[in-house]
Amino acid sequence: MTVVEDDLSLVFSALADPTRRAILARLAEGEATVHQLAEPFAMSQQAVSKHLKVLERARLISRTRTAQARPCVLETERLDAAVDWIARHRQLWADRHDRLARHLAALRAAEGTGRAEGTTR
User: Fold this and answer.
1) DSSP letter string over 63-107?
2) pTM of the model
């Protein structure tokens, strides 16, 4: 089986982990080093670095160079693309739900008048 890793799949995969979501929330406040990002977690800087690599691969963060430090920066473009995808599909699902609700209401109304499809007398 071939696994296709498109941009959106990488983003959703990265967002699936609560630690990575917490890292992104922290970076929404401003850039931070690996050490700063590791502080609130009960894990090593190495473990946080692995999470950062996943976020980098999904292009949700980037690393800059400031002297010897390499602070991480949130990149919102990929998040915006995921939000757009969710919004489009939310509307599609809402439309389908509305059509189903109308259909069920019509069936209930037809049953109430004795004209439901497929009924025999």
Assistant:
1) E--BTTB--EEE--HHHHHHHHHHHHHHHHHHHHHHHHHHHHHHH
2) 0.72
